[in-house]
Design a protein that fits this description.
elongated; 0% strand; Serine Threonine Protein Phosphatase 5, Tetratricopeptide repeat; transmembrane; transmembrane helix
Amino acid sequence: MKQHTFHFPFFILFLMLFLISCNEKTSHSSYLKYEDLSKKAEEFEKKYRFDSAYFYYNQAKSHIENHHEQWAYTLLKTATIQNYIGDHYGCEETITEALAHYQGSTYLPYFYNLLAISYHKQNSLEESLNYYKKASDLATNQLEKAIIQNNTGLIYLEEKQYQKAIQTLAPLLTDDALSKNPYELARVLDNLGYTQFLLQKQEASENLHLAWKLRDSLNDNIGLIASNMHLSEYYQHKNDLLAKEYAQKAYQSSQKANSPDDKLEALKWLTEFGDSNDSKHFYQEYIALNDSIIKARNIAKNQFAKIKYDSKKATQEVIKYKNQKSLLLALIGLIVVIAILLYKLYQIKTNENFNNPLISPKPEFPNAFMTNWRMMCLMQ
């Protein structure tokens, strides 16, 4: 009798490859969902629809393991949105979550830089400087370091440490990384020019106007708000007409940039100019906008809190599903292995019985009967 051999190691290898393949397909599917949701979030972010952007970033996060680079990216984006709408506590909470799990290094300078900006907006300037230093120490390229140095100079400016601010900002004008990035160069020129203006230095006018021209050529409405405000202040006691003109330009730029905070600043500054009717009009608009911003931000904070809660529940469901699937695959694998072992034991036992001389196979009845019958016929 021919014995059929079972290739046990080959089958186990096949089973392992099958299980790995299933996990890889699941991972690939999750990554595709992450990419799709991230793209949607980015599209809404470009349109300043931050509630929708925040929602989709949180959805995207649930499809990526909590230590991967993509996961860190979504948290950085959600924290940036929170910081922009004034939810500084939420921003800090999101970054803290990221730092607790993130095992990479790519986004660490950005997290620390954003924390510094958040503390800056809350007037915790010393705390802000600490995080700018951490961000700078971890920055991997010269442009990142230059941006952080500019931000640090702005802190010194607001702390009225003007000489220290100039010492921090002035060297950046000859930085090669900034010469290739006009947006950031304009920021440095404007901050430096404004600091020089406060110290009544002659170079102030040139740097302030250079920054304005750069931003105007780039159609940088966010940057033009600051430039127009600074030039309005520069001309306040030199030329009332120019001061008012730049204040109005700052207001127009804030409308184009959809920046409510900057619009508030422009309105506040416009109340300083013009006759009493104009000032009254701008002040009333300022009060109405300020109330509207506070209300909108409170609504947004509540929405974000709900989105985050729902996203956390969704993430838990995804993890639960993955765990159940892994358990099921492991159980199937265990059953198959046990079945193989039982079959192997059966084969071994069968071979032992077949090769044992004490156990002789019985003759098949029909053949034995026919043989005996023939013999009887011959004897007669």
